[in-house]
Design a protein that fits this description.
heterodimer, A: 279 residues, globular, B: 61 residues, mainly alpha, flat
Chain lengths: 279, 61
């Protein structure tokens, strides 16, 4: 297998198209408590793909609304800006990631895992009093580097997926051993290229790091990723639970009971969010 | 008098509470493999015990 140079990945990332303005605004609003809700809602409404997905989910049986929601403004009123922003961000980022044709990966499985991790990270953030919307987005993007690797070095990545080592150890270890580059590094290249906030860059880049101090968002994503893998929310043939930093739960201030409750809430939330996957 | 229904013998009743989650055998087998990895750290052991709690809980309505 031919080792991969991170510069090769960086070059591929630089060729990615810029994100649509509405997605950038949604990401920028994550840390801005005073963001202009009306303006962002009108931008969502002007994007046919994102607004259609938003309305489809808002009108799904999960929310159980008495009357159907006909506009993004109405969805914001009924569901709240935070829920609408999460839906629109998911739709926008999934569409933007189509620029990464990762044929070696099962994209439905990939996005189901990403969505489950996002929902779990949101629940963990709620329990630990962190920014829930930011945690959701970090969870959604945490494995983006897999799409980058699978699309920019498809032969090497495909060969790695077929390797016996891939079935015997955490993915990050196989990537480092066989490719010389891992999906956390590759993912960080993308979110850095897209000029996402440093919170997101650290969360994506450090979510498997056991030798660098974790930022709060990186710790939330490491925990959410492991919880989702352990619960087998998205059954895959070999989905090894990643290695965790020993004091992860102490860093987050969570005990077994709270983790078990998070699992319950994640299952419930994922049931309602399934419509986000697929077209 | 008929013996009380046990979870194993109860007739299908949509109103009956759903039994606690139990992983499918192949999932359980894989979990043991996975937890050999995750239990390498104390955090992995905490996650394993939390998962066991979760699997014993009744699903939320």
């Amino acid at each position: 297998m031919i080792p991969v140079d991170l510069n090769q990945i960086a070059t591929a990332v630089r060729a990615l198209p810029a994100l649509p303005r509405v997605v950038m605004e949604l990401i920028e609003s994550l840390r801005d408590e005073n963001c202009d809700v009306d303006r962002i809602a009108s931008q969502i409404a002007r994007d046919p793909g994102i607004s259609a997905k938003t309305l489809r989910l808002a009108n799904s049986s999960f929310f159980g609304l008495q009357r159907s929601v006909a506009s993004v403004d109405q969805a914001v009123t009924v569901l709240g800006f935070s829920a609408v922003r999460n839906i629109a961000t998911t739709a926008g980022l999934m569409r933007s990631a189509e620029a990464l044709p990762a044929r070696a990966l099962d994209l439905n499985e990939f996005w189901r895992h990403s969505l489950a991790t996002a929902l779990c990270a949101r629940e963990l953030a709620s329990s630990t009093l962190h920014n829930t919307a930011l945690a959701y987005t970090c969870g959604l993007l945490h494995d983006l580097g897999k799409l980058v690797l699978a699309s920019s070095v498809p032969e090497s990545y495909g060969a790695m997926l077929q390797s016996p080592r891939y079935r015997a150890e955490p993915t990050i270890q196989t990537e480092r051993s066989l490719l010389g580059v891992d999906h956390a590094q590759a993912g960080r290249e993308v979110v850095s290229h897209w000029q996402f906030p440093t919170d997101i860059q650290h969360a994506v880049g450090l979510h498997h790091s056991c030798d660098t101090p974790l930022t709060p968002m990186a710790a939330l994503v490491m925990a959410a990723d492991a919880i989702v893998q352990a619960m087998d929310v998205v059954p895959t043939v070999w989905a090894a639970v990643p290695i965790l930093v020993p004091d992860l739960w102490e860093q987050l201030g969570l005990g077994e009971e709270q983790i078990a409750q998070t699992m319950q809430r994640t299952v419930h939330a994922l049931a309602g969010a399934q419509l986000l996957i697929g077209h | 008098m008929n013996p009380p229904n046990t979870p194993e013998t109860s007739p299908a009743d949509p109103a009956a509470p759903t039994p606690p989650r139990k992983p499918a055998p192949e999932v359980a087998a894989r979990n043991s493999f996975l937890f050999r990895l995750s239990a390498q750290t104390s955090a992995g052991a905490v996650l394993l015990r939390a998962l066991e709690r979760f699997q014993q809980q009744e699903p939320q309505p």
